Structure prediction request, 380 residues.
Amino acid sequence: MSSSFPRHTRALETLKARGRYRQLLPRAGHDFASNDYLGLAGSDVLRDAAAEALGRGVPVGAGGARLLRGNDPEHQLLEQEAAAFFGTEAALFMGGGFQANLAIFSTLPQQGDLVLYDALIHASTHDGMRLGRADARAFSHNDTAAAAQAITDWREAGGSGQVWIAVEAVYSMDGDLAPLKTLKALCDREGAVLLVDEAHSTGVFGDAGRGLGHRMAQSANVVSLHTCGKALGGSGALICGAAPLIDMLINKARAFIYATAPSPLNAALVRAALRELSHNPARQLDAWGNITHAHAEAGRLCGISGLTSQILPIVIGDDKGCMAVAATLQDRGFDVRGIRPPTVPRGTSRLRLSISKNTSRAVITELFSTLAPLLEEIRP
Prediction:
């Protein structure tokens, strides 16, 4: 390794010694790592949509920011169709989920407001809050009572602005579900706004894959984020909510104003993905067949219970031990990745198994049969 940057070199060596060094690995083996839950990314559905869009002259690049010349008809058609699909007044297409959360949390909560966020919220939310001017406080994971108490404490201390409650519908590293009904009821009682990151529920949960919170999405006090690079098979993100909030993002969100617009071709692909969700319910049902099978086999072969989604966390604990198990599985033909701090709390390094339409049920069983003895070796 180059010695031109000694401090960086020492930092990287420390990461290696602790088992936290990250490197890019090629795709190989059966897919238990991607977020392509519905198998759309490499599907004929999107290939055909790409060919059709190019054939009618949809450009690959936007050529500029949306507020300049980058605003393509495909962007606007997607936003209209997404608002109708998810049941909201308006939608805004962004370059990605990270960028979208930067826009939301740096722009919508104002100075004097309070953002209450689940302790396990995504890193992009933290970065967005750092750019914003609102007070930000965590509450215990999935604990609605703790969120309610935090509001009471804040108001008793003199807080009088808008309260925003931020959660993930399906938590990306734990795979559990947010208690959206009780959180929405809290927001209704307290005049708060619920910010729901549906990144890992879009396509998988809800009627036609509209997300875990789809039945409340039309409420004025709910803003939902649907990423397009996971179950929808493309890239980008859709912020869905009340028209004044979407207009505020267009006018004030630096992550929107100063960014080159997403590819119009990709907007056409996301439109095709939404049509597929609407017209082909079998795709979602097939994915759930694999997910249900994986839950059963995880319990039968590995003694793992309490699973609720397509994301199956297998907590190993030790960083190096986690990566060693992941490497063994990779050597045996399964693309399983280890997740370490700071993505997850210290001492909870884990395998993150992602179940999708891209693997057969026989392969899912084979994975857990291979994993079982590896877990027995490391369990106390």
Remarks:
- The chain has two domains: 23-41+281-378, 58-279.
- Residues 58-279 form a domain with the Aspartate Aminotransferase; domain 2 fold (CATH 3.40.640.10).
- The longest helix spans residues 281-302.
- The chain has a mean pLDDT of 96.
